[in-house]
Structures are given as structure tokens and as C-alpha cells.
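Side project, low priority. Logging it here so it doesn't get lost.
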Amino acid sequence: MLIRKEYHTNGSLMGIWKIDETIEELLELFPSSIRSEADSYIKSVRSNRRIREWLSTRIMLLELLGELKIILNREDGKPYIEDGSYHISISHTRDHAAILLHKTHPVGIDIEIISDRVEILAYKFISENEYIDPEHKTLHQLLHWSVKECMFKLINEQGIDFKKHLFVHRFTPKQSGMINATEYKTNKQKIFSLNYEVHPEYVLTWVVEN
């Protein structure tokens, strides 16, 4: 079910889908004109979770734009819209999917379920020079990961090391706000200003590249 459709002042369009439908219920919503595409995907994938994610994102795109668009994937796995009418970014977490669209600028979005599992993996993507608030450790680490996921989606480079090449500037987590981060993979060393929100079940970050 589409739980959020939001136009932003920077020209982007965001959608959030609560994936509470079965595969059969999603197929009933899927456009009949491209049902063969869905059938082919279902036959090629064993994971019901992945099937539900795939179906829900394509139905969400139709509901966001009010017209049928085909989502394809490049060799590196990044999605794009077949006719090139929008830049698109897609993210999934448990029972939620997110899409960000913009007609002229590349975009990145990431949605992550809140879990303390991130503490086990934090050493792999957070450097010693990045600040983590000890009073909000799990949330802060999760936002670091989510921010870096968004940046990764925008940087067209191979071999990106989240710990070495992506740096999140100091911030203290709130319910929502902006986070600045710098990439050191390219000569541009571009600074990104990302939006974030903290929800009861998940965190959400997104950015439009200027």
C-alpha cells in the first residue's frame, strides 16, 4: 500500500510503500499489459521477499506517476527507467520500499529497518574520525550506513570503500534534519547534503545531486 507520496521543492518526488500484501494480491494490482514481465521474474527468483519487493516498487512507480514506466537495471545493478524520463533510486527494507524520482538530476534514497545488528558491522564502514553519539549509538550508526548507501548510489565509481572514501560530518541524531557528507573517491571530493528522518520502524535518507 502506498503510504506516502510527496513532492519536494527541489523537484523530486518520493514514494514509500508498506509491503503488507501477498504476491497474489500484488499481482492483482500489476499492470496487465506487462504481466508477462512479472511472470518471468517470478519464475527466475526463489525468494518470496524479493518478489514482493520487485512487484511493489513497480506498482508504486505507476501510482506515483499515473503512467506506466519500465524499470530496468544496469550491469552494476543500479535501476533506471527505460525511456529516460526520470532519474530513479530504489531502496528496500523489511516490509517497506522507497522510491525517489527527479526529471533532471541524479537521486539517491535509502531506507533501513532499525536494528542493533548494525553495531556488529559498524567497524567496517565507520572510520575512527567519524563521530558517533554514545547515547544514540545504534541510531547514529544506522544513519551513517544509510547516508553512505545514498552516496554510493550517486557516485559512478567502482571499488568504493565506505570507511575510506565516504565521510559523514559530525551531527547529533534528531527526528529529522540534514546531514553533510564528503566523498573522497573522486578528484571532485564532492560534499553532499542529505535529508534524513527517523521513524518508529525505520530510518530514511535521501538526496538530489546538484
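Brief comment: DSSP finds six helices and eleven strands in the chain.
Revisit when time allows.
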